[in-house]
Amino acid sequence: MGVEAFQVGRDVAITPGKVVFRNRLIELIQYTPATAEVQAEPVLIVPAWIMKYYILDLSPQNSLVRYLVEQGYTVFMVSWKNPEAATVTLTWRTIAGSA
Fold this sequence. Notes:
Layout (H helix, E strand, L loop, with lengths): L17 E5 L3 E6 L11 E3 L11 E3 L2 E2 H7 L4 E6 L11 H7 L1
Parallel strand pairs: 3-6
Antiparallel strand pairs: 1-2, 2-6, 4-5
């Protein structure tokens, strides 16, 4: 089974979210609580740089994100962008200065 067998929203990244911030290195995704009562404190998830955000949102039975929004949490998750030629010279110092 190849990658083409997986569809975003059906097999991976199943919880609806929206990109609320974007720069050269990341996209920040916000997931809205699925309850009428919202928890006071949001949750911020920053996966390891080599990990794709959807590993924590694989399926309805295996999704930390879905579990949290069903508990009334607003969830923010960093999605690291894939490296490309334009980002080869980026360092943490240049990134911090460009925010």
